[in-house]
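In the current project phase, the collection of sequences with tokenised folds has grown. A sample record is quoted in full directly below:
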Amino acid sequence: MAPALRLTKNCELKGIVTGTPSKVERWQKEYGIADRNVYDYESLPRIADNPDIYVVFLLVPTSLHAKYSIMAAEAGKHVWCEKPMAMNVEECQAIIDACERNKVSLSIGYRMQHEPNTQTVIQFAEEKPYGPIRNIRAVAGGFSDDHTGWRMDPKMGGGALYDMGVYSINAIRYASGEEPVRVVRARQWADRPDVFTEVDENTEFDLELPSGVIAYGKASRFDNENRLRVEAEKGWYQLQPMQSYNGVKGETSDGKKLNQEIENQQARQMDNEALAILEQRPPVVPAEEGLRDVRIVTAIIEAARTGKAVNLRAAAARGVPRL
């Protein structure tokens, strides 16, 4: 993320929070960070007295998002929270409440809504140039041989569903322009069960949309498929890859190429969200995006565990109804 900040027009890296003192000197030298702008996790509340810093970008494990997002909000700083927003709906709502209470902006770190080819797909959902949507398939996969760190710990938000599945869920939502009403079925498994002993290596699921469409989603740390495909009455369109840092590309059934390029997705994301703060506009990717995806994540886990469908409208009523 720090290298991307160098490509922004509206942002500047002014401070860091780290639990590893040995990293401080290198960061200070590379980014010109003043001593007064270096924090550890215990001293973070002192950021309230630092006029150099306007925004705190949370890039910690998912299980820590709520704690430090709330801490940043209570310090009076705007919050950018990496995806997934939190471990559960209750934590998401606690972050939202803290930001509202302290009158600071809150955005979720989804890159794709800032990416031009994805924006075209979002426009297709609104305008239906290929007629009514009949089917959606969203797969966020990428083979990983890194079996260390917090992404292998279920208590910290590890596993394919939390890490990659939110891309598939979010893609189904923006490609359809609809909010899923039911997790029809879900399954979690490991292709390398000797390695993935505590977290899912793969999760697949079917989401029912209000239109009646059943959308298929998958998250995998084994398969390399990375694609969003939408089939409609009069044609189809797809993005492949749909969420690569190296660029998103796609095509349509009538030969159109979805291949607009931007220099850096994260830089575009941060510039857009910074401009929203400066112009006192709502975030491009508001907190509701994160909460809705996390609600679906937890419903998928329940459906996989029980083997039964989960009604998302009922889950919303049981959980947090204020959105």
